[in-house]
Design brief:
By secondary structure, the chain is an alpha+beta fold. The protein has one domain. It is about 30% helix and about 25% strand. The chain is globular, with a radius of gyration of 14 Å. Residues about 125-128 have low confidence and may be disordered.
């Protein structure tokens, strides 16, 4: 996740992944909405996701967050812990997507805050 540098450790999976959630407005109003971020919406559209099937994207992300390893970052100045879960997503074809999660200081439910295509992840995945 941008700006956090290399201060992370790898964990088996997102903590409390069974209680992870994605705010509805995050998918419908941000990630899949071309009027918000045209490039991001076009990328997810190329994977087969759009504003009509946003629930499928939600299901796919939550499933992958429950099975993939996570990068755990150090607590920020507000006591929140950030995680990054990288995953292959897509309906007609799969691409690497980075998802960002926050666990608030007084909570334990991971909340997704972002999802994006990361060119570095794409190249690293192809080299393996």
């Amino acid at each position: 996740m941008g700006g956090r540098g290399q201060n992370y450790s790898v964990v088996k999976r997102l903590p409390n992944y069974r209680r992870a959630f994605i705010p509805r407005n995050k998918l419908k109003n941000n990630i899949l909405n071309p009027s918000k971020d045209k490039n991001k919406a076009e990328f997810f559209s190329s994977l087969g996701y759009n504003m009509k099937n946003w629930k499928r994207l939600e299901r796919d992300i939550l499933h992958k967050a429950s099975t993939n390893k996570a990068l755990k970052y150090k607590k920020d100045e507000y006591g929140r812990v950030a995680y990054q879960v990288n995953m292959l997503l897509g309906l007609p074809r799969k691409r690497m997507v980075a998802t960002g999660w926050i666990i608030d200081k007084k909570g334990d439910n991971p909340r997704m805050i972002t999802a994006y295509h990361n060119q570095k992840l794409k190249q690293a995945y192809r080299e393996k």
